[in-house]
Amino acid sequence: MQPNYSNGRMDDLIAQFLSGNISTEDQRALEQWINASPDNRAYFIALRDVWMATATPGHYNADAAWHELQQINAPVSIKRWKQVLRMAASFTLPFVLGGGVVFAWLSLKKGDNGQGLVTVTSPKGATTKIELSDGTEVWLNAGSSLQYASSFNSRSREVKLEGEAFFKVHTDPRKPFTVNAADLKILALGTSFNVKAYPEDKGVVTTLVDGAVRIDGSQTASPFKIMLKPHQHVVYKQPATVAGNNQKGTTALTAASITPVETREVSNTEIYTAWKDGNWIVTSQSLEELAITMERRFNVNVVFKDEALKTFRFSGTFRQETLEQVLNILKLTAPLDYKIEEGTVTIREDKALKEKYANALRNSK
């Protein structure tokens, strides 16, 4: 049964939650009220975004917040919030709500047009689930961030992604949902898909689970557009640039190759989406590739003392294993030893284990 509070009382609880001044008992009551109906959840999310658009880190100025609130196209009635804004003594927002309370970093800054931009960051070592004001659910993988305007869903639905995210988009034919990732635009209506776009990877990998999405690469060096069907997987690699001399004898950067775009069917999309459920499916990946994922997943640095180890390949599924458990599983098929010290994993060749594996291979012939 949901708490029988008045609207004014729930506004008070939401403000206390957003300012970090809510008691454990009141937070439990608030979560119960939010989960009691989709309308309650939508109301909370709308006020959360209004709060994000009007708050600034550090000393809280209620008059300035009220002025900012009047400038934006708030998705809900803001009249009652004038009083709420004035009661807030400080701004802290440690939680994002969406299916449960999870930890993430949030920040606010002004965009080029003066509009508030909300950024949700999932730090290394953690995954985050959020719900946007249109009902779209987003899972953010470790070391990823999602940015959107404070007016999101008032006229359009557009987000910018750096890192990896799984989107379960709420259907709204009037407002396509657009993900900006690197130099691509990925447009969707009601659908579920995964986008991997870590800046250091120099590319974007899109996997469609159901529905339909269109990838617009018109801003790339070799423009293209692709309409994806369920279970299709598209890998776009940003072209490398090389320095060369132009006709004036000065150095210029040019694309080294035509933009490579690879499309293929995948029977099991879970390989690319299992991370949102805490699992990790590995399919013939090198230890060097696994090290990159380990760094994001466990917030560590991985150092190889023997280059040859990078080429060992693995397949399998990890389910909620710790870093030590993952490394011990890898040791079962590769001659490696490791040491974890002050956030750094040092991997080197285990010569005794290498000899043991070599003898086993010789004896099996």
From TrEMBL:
The keyword Cell inner membrane does not apply. One of its GO terms (molecular function) is sigma factor antagonist activity. Residues 119-214 form the FecR protein domain. InterPro entries: FecR, FecR_C, Ferrdict_sens_TM. It comes from the Bacteria. The chain crosses the membrane at residues 87-108. Residues 282-347 form the Protein FecR C-terminal domain. Keywords: Membrane, Transmembrane, Transmembrane helix. This is Iron dicitrate transport regulator FecR. It comes from Chitinophaga flava. The lineage of its organism: Bacteria, Pseudomonadati, Bacteroidota, Chitinophagia, Chitinophagales.
